[in-house]
């Protein structure tokens, strides 16, 4: 009898916990203009809807990942802003770009991306969200922390969702240690432990990010003050200290590098990968099914249109691909003007990337090395040939090649011979498929799937109303306190005072006793 009562109490407790979080009203503010970023954020929203929550999403782009029960509000960019963005993306496709040059663009010609995210907040379609009672806000992060003011006005805790491993800004918001001596920053590819040159590169890159962060902080703070002029609003600096949690798109146990993570950082790498692939569109399914010698999948991502790549490079790629014995699925946006006709090439303006990579006949992925695409290829064990274009893609490609999962080439200097050799090497040498297959097994081996992690920790934040118990004390410490500079100054001051005091005492003793001894000796000599 007592045992039965105990079981009932446990069941009632569990039901109470479930009831406290099921059906929560969650706002997803996903204003990044990048469709690939939106895929990650919408996958988080989809997981929460499937867990029984009510999710409203505000975005600036119509998402490719969707669920019938998500309430979607799309507030697109203005036409002029779209034109500027497309122009900048075209320029990056034909010029050598690095992480530094990309950051510079975001501060200058591409700052329209940041400004549009600010203008979104005053749009009448967005303003209506203040009429709804929400329990939590999830903010897709991309240089838009001024949007933290929305969570404050709604009086809800906030989770930020980031696409890859923690970067300096995520570390700053969560109090996560940087550990520059053995954790390479974005774009740094290094062996472990890092040698002196790589550690020096890491330190220099860290200083660069610190400088960029200060510049962005000035711009973002100014935007925040313009968008939220109310006197009762706290400073943006204070709002950053109240971020409850950060979801990061990585799984460092398998991807590396191993690094410390504070409890408020939750890894959800692979959140966009489906538990079971969706059925492919009929034409793609038939094309892959008849690819008895295998298929090659080419996609340069969602930000860069294939048609913006230099025509001579496109023609080199076409000549090589049309000569393969394998079939090729090529993501090409302008179907009226394709690179050429070939019986082994299927052009499509949009492709279900994860589902195609999951197909057993897909033998190789030609990618721009975006984090999302590389993650999906790694998950499904598909070797790659990377053609990076800008931002973190060069670092992603170099790390992919170093790990033995494929070959990286420079898109702007690619030739028929170099591409043909790379494809032949990756398709015919079993070491690439073997290496990425081993990684796939490691990547999937975790106590909770990415979706389970999203649901559990979101509901944890809901149950505990922000869970301040997870927050690192480092969030509330300034630079001097965090690095113990005041302690070092105090120790140095004590040492200096001790040395000075010792010298003073020695001088007094010398004058008192050494002087008398000198006088006594003088008298004896007389």
Cα end-to-end separation: 112 Å
Q: Strand order within the widest sheet? A: 3-2-1-4-5-6-7
Tally of strands: 13
Mean pLDDT: 88
CATH class of the largest domain: Alpha Beta
Question: Which CATH architecture of the largest domain is right?
Answer: 3-Layer(aba) Sandwich
Number of helices: 21
Shape: globular
Helix content: 40-55%
- Note the main sheet: 7 strands, parallel
Category by helix and strand content:
alpha/beta
> By CATH's scheme, which homologous superfamily of the largest domain applies?
Glycogen Phosphorylase B
- Contiguous runs where pLDDT drops below 50 for at least 5 residues: 1-20
Commentary on this structure:
The protein is α/β, with parallel strands linked by helices. It has 3 domains: 278 residues, Glycogen Phosphorylase B (Rossmann fold); 163 residues, Rossmann fold, CATH 3.40.50.2000; 50 residues. It is 50% helix and 11% strand. It is built from 21 helices and 13 strands. The strands form 2 sheets. A 7-stranded parallel β-sheet has the order 3-2-1-4-5-6-7, covered by helices on one side. A 6-stranded parallel β-sheet has the order 10-9-8-11-12-13, with helices on both faces. Helix 2 crosses helix 19 and helix 13 packs across helix 17. The N terminus is likely disordered.
